[in-house]
Every structure is written in structure tokens, then in C-alpha cells.
């Protein structure tokens, strides 16, 4: 029975017909760069032929699973054992069910093994089940690479062998391969050479244009035309399509892919607490198991034998000791460990000039190294505690009402200024000399004395402090809301804790 399906519009406005019966005997190769419309072409072919022939789609990105809703394709998840996939493929042929093998979420080597097991399962079906099947393989260069890549040689040979069987020996078993690739140069030649029908889309590299022109029987000087093809436009050639190269425009489709080409859209307004959102870990991250993405390549047998020969045999197998669970800490012990880790970080003189986000990441790492249980403090709380520690307030000072008022007032300034505010407040509460510009600059994480003076001006503009000098020109900072002030201090004095005087810009 001869069945022609409409693939779109040919040059001259006529309908571009594809003979399904001829396609089953002669196979099809589709080539085009990313974004040229290959997946759209395959979807048009599958939709138009769904009622006439059984279909099996090898789908590495999970884009064709939407065919299930409209045309009843069975979706097979590739995350199974090779034996399970081979058995499913064999039953697919027996019961003539169209399906989509989705390999989404697997790494490249797992995809190759799953596709090979499934194709081999269909290939090995009993002769009584050799009904015609249209086998569509998207991104075929992944499963039949021209050269070895980062995957193991065993996986590459297994996948390449299955693709070769599909294209070279599948016709007698009713398997008609339709393969799509981004680049002909990346596809194994013995797989591509078995196709007699071609649909060539947009491509830019000279080697791919020349090879496409050769396959279509065109002069190499005409190969430049492949650069000018628009999205969804292809040049067709083959017994199931046209006896001469024929430009066609692929028609519309009824279903759509789950993923699509990216579209520009305005960025959302940045939240005020963007650093908190990014750097504060989710509590579930500490209990979530690590996901292993890649399967390591098998070790050579010679390496294993050499390692075994160097190993001394064990005299006796000692019974495994039961794993002792870590005892839970009391709230006081946990707080002591957290405070100790925080002190370790801030005791480093260089920590004053590192951002809170960087210090917070180091804090989290050290908590894990010390095996401190429980959910760590958040980034805002970490900043707050860093500001208090850097102020230098001791336990006696922190027990006073004046310090409690200072903490309450500090919540009204931004996170980056709390350290400077509490440094000045501590000096006022304890009656100490006003910190120098160099000391204030270090509390802010800078070497600039000018910036320190600007911070004092900012606090004074906000009404938080009053800055004045005594008769000798030394600076005094008063806190009206606390009712105390610093003693006179030299603004130009060196930072005894920082080592050198801050540079005046």
C-alpha cells in the first residue's frame, strides 16, 4: 500500500510528499545545526505517519514525550537495567505499540548503553514479529560518534554496533531508521552511508556543507546555499522524497516540545536580601544525599592485576565493628563549638578585609570539619555575630543595659555598617577613647581613612551620633539615645591591631 504524507510546501507552492512505504525500505538522514528545525521536522514526520506505521523514538532530551497525549505513544523511562530495556523492546515489537524511549536525566554514557540495549532488543525479536517500525533517533551523533570521546570504549562500541545494525541490517527485520544529527562530520560514516533519503538544513562549517553537497549530488560551489537556509527549510533528495534536490518548507505541527528556543524576557527586580538568598544554605542540603552523575570508566585489567600482586593477603578477616553514631550535643556545647569556630576565623588579621559572604562559606566548611550537628546559623545572623565580636565587647559590657540599647539601635543600620556602629558604641559604653580612622576603616573592611570619615558623617546625618572635638582637637563620638560618649581620641592614630596606619586617600 502506497501512502504519501504531507511534509510541507515544496518550491513552487506544491505539496511536499514523502512516500512512507519507500521510506521503510530506504531510510532517512536529517542534518542541520542547532536551531535549524530538525526536531520540528521529525515531529511533523511522526504526527503525519502515526496512523500508518508503528513508531519508536530514541529521545535523549525528553522532547517527544508529548506525542503520548495526542497519539497514544507509550513513554518508556530509560533509567532501567539493560535487561529490562531489552525485554520491553522485544514486547514492543510483539504487540506493535508505538513508544518514546526518553533518556532525559542520564549522562551520555548511560544514554548510549540504554539506547543500545533497547535497539538490540528490537533487532533480536523473533521473525514472526518483524512488522515494519519507523525508528527515529534524535541527536544520532551521540549514539554513533565518528570518533571516541569521554565515554568508555565498551559503551561506544555497544552503541555504535546497535546503530549500525539498525541502519545496515534493520531493513529485513522491518526496522526503518530515521536519524537526525547536528553535524555530519560527527556521525559515523558507515551509519550515515546507509541512508538513501536526505533532508539537509542550515549548516555553516565548510566540511559539513561539502559533505551535504556530496550526499545530494550537488556541485561543491553550490554548497554555500546551506548557510542561507532559514529555520524549518530543508533540501530534500531520495526515492521517498524527490529524484532531484528539492527545497521544502516543513509544515506546522499539532504537538509541541516541552523545551523550546530561549526567548528574551526582562529580569526580575533584584531582592534586597539577594546575598542571603544565595549564600544561606537550605537545611535540606545537609541531609540530601550526593548525586553521582557520571559512571567511571572501567579500569584496565593489567592495572587491577598489578595492584593485586602488590597487596599482601590478609591473615584473617576481622569482624566489622559497628558504626558508632555521634552523640548529640547539648545546646550549650554546640554554641561553644560555634563560637570557637567563629573566633578562629576572626582571629586571622586578613579576615577584616574579606567579605562576609566569603567568611560565611569558610564558617560552614569549618562547622562540617568539626562535625557540629544541626542546621547552621543563617547569613544575617552570622553577620550580626561577626559585628558583635569585632566590636570587642566583653561579657561584662554585654550584660549592661547600655549595650542592650546599642544592639537595638544597630538593627536600624544596614548589615555592612553594624560592625562600625557597634565598635563606636562599645567605646562609648566603656568610656574608651574614640577609635581612629584607621581602626574604623578596618572594621568596615577597607584601608581607606577617608571612607571611615564619611561613615561618621553618615551616622551623624542619620541622627545616630554626634561628632565633636575637644580643645586639643581630639575626636569624641556621643550617642544621645544611649546617654554616653567616647573619651577624646586621636583620629590620625595608627591601628595598633591592624599593624599599619590606614592610607589616607
Automatic annotation (TrEMBL):
Residues 310-333 are annotated as: Disordered. SMART domains: AAA (SM00382). SUPFAM superfamilies: P-loop containing nucleoside triphosphate hydrolases. Residues 310-322 have a biased composition (Low complexity). It holds the Pfam family DUF87. InterPro entries: AAA+_ATPase, ATPase_Atu1862_pred, HerA-like, HerA_central, P-loop_NTPase. It comes from Rhizobium paranaense. Gene3D superfamilies: P-loop containing nucleotide triphosphate hydrolases. Residues 24-284 form the AAA+ ATPase domain. This is AAA+ ATPase domain-containing protein. It comes from the Bacteria.
Amino acid at each position: 500500500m502506497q501512502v504519501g504524507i504531507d511534509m510541507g510546501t515544496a518550491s513552487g507552492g506544491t505539496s511536499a510528499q514523502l512516500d512512507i512505504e519507500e521510506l521503510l525500505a530506504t531510510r532517512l538522514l536529517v542534518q542541520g545545526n542547532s536551531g535549524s528545525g530538525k526536531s520540528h521536522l521529525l515531529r511533523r514526520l511522526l504526527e503525519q505517519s502515526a496512523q500508518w506505521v508503528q513508531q519508536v523514538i530514541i529521545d535523549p532530551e525528553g522532547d517527544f514525550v508529548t506525542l503520548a497525549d495526542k497519539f497514544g505513544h507509550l513513554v518508556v523511562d530509560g533509567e532501567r537495567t539493560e535487561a529490562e530495556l531489552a525485554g520491553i523492546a522485544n514486547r514492543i515489537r510483539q504487540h506493535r505499540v508505538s513508544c518514546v524511549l526518553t533518556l532525559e536525566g542520564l549522562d551520555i554514557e548511560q544514554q548510549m548503553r540504554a539506547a543500545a540495549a533497547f535497539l538490540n532488543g528490537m533487532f533480536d525479536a523473533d521473525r514472526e514479529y518483524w512488522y515494519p517500525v519507523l525508528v527515529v533517533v534524535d541527536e544520532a551523533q551521540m549514539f554513533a560518534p565518528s570518533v571516541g570521546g569521554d565515554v568508555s570504549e565498551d559503551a561506544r562500541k555497544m552503541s555504535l554496533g546497535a546503530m549500525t545494525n539498525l541502519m545496515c541490517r534493520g531493513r529485513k527485520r522491518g526496522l526503518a531508521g530515521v536519524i537526525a544529527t547536528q553535524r555530519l562530520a560527527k556521525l559515523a560514516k558507515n551509519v550515515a552511508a546507509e541512508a538513501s533519503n536526505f533532508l539537509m538544513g542550515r549548516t555553516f562549517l565548510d566540511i559539513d556543507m561539502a559533505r551535504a553537497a556530496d550526499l545530494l549530488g550537488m556541485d561543491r560551489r553550490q554548497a554555500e546555499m546551506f548557510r542561507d537556509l532559514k529555520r524549518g527549510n530543508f533540501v530534500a533528495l531520495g526515492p521517498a522524497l524527490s529524484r532531484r534536490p528539492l527545497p521544502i518548507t516543513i509544515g506546522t505541527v499539532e504537538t509541541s516540545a516541552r523545551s523550546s528556543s530561549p526567548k528574551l524576557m526582562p529580569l526580575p527586580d533584584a531582592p534586597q536580601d539577594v546575598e542571603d538568598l544565595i549564600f544561606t544554605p537550605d537545611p535540606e542540603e545537609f541531609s540530601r544525599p550526593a548525586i553521582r552523575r557520571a559512571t567511571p570508566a572501567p579500569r584496565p585489567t593489567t592495572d587491577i592485576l598489578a595492584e593485586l600482586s602488590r597487596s599482601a593477603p590478609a591473615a584473617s578477616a576481622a569482624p566489622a565493628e559497628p558504626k558508632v553514631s555521634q552523640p548529640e550535643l547539648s545546646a550549650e556545647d554546640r554554641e561553644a563549638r560555634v563560637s570557637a569556630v567563629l573566633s578562629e576565623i576572626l582571629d586571622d588579621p586578613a579576615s577584616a578585609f574579606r567579605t562576609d559572604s566569603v567568611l560565611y562559606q569558610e564558617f560552614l566548611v569549618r562547622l562540617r570539619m568539626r562535625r557540629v550537628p544541626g542546621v547552621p546559623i543563617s547569613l544575617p545572623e552570622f553577620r550580626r555575630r561577626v559585628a558583635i565580636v569585632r566590636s570587642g565587647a566583653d561579657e561584662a559590657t554585654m550584660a549592661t543595659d547600655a549595650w542592650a540599647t546599642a544592639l537595638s539601635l544597630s538593627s536600624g543600620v544596614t548589615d555592612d555598617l553594624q560592625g562600625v556602629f557597634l565598635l563606636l558604641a562599645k567605646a562609648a559604653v566603656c568610656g574608651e577613647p574614640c577609635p581612629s580612622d584607621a581602626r574604623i576603616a578596618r572594621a568596615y573592611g577597607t584601608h581607606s581613612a577617608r571612607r571611615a570619615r564619611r561613615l561618621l558623617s553618615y551616622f551623624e546625618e542619620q541622627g545616630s551620633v554626634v561628632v565633636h572635638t575637644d580643645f586639643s582637637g581630639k575626636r569624641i563620638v556621643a550617642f544621645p539615645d544611649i546617654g554616653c560618649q567616647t573619651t577624646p581620641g586621636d583620629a590620625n592614630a595608627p591601628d595598633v591591631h591592624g599593624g599599619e596606619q590606614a592610607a589616607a586617600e
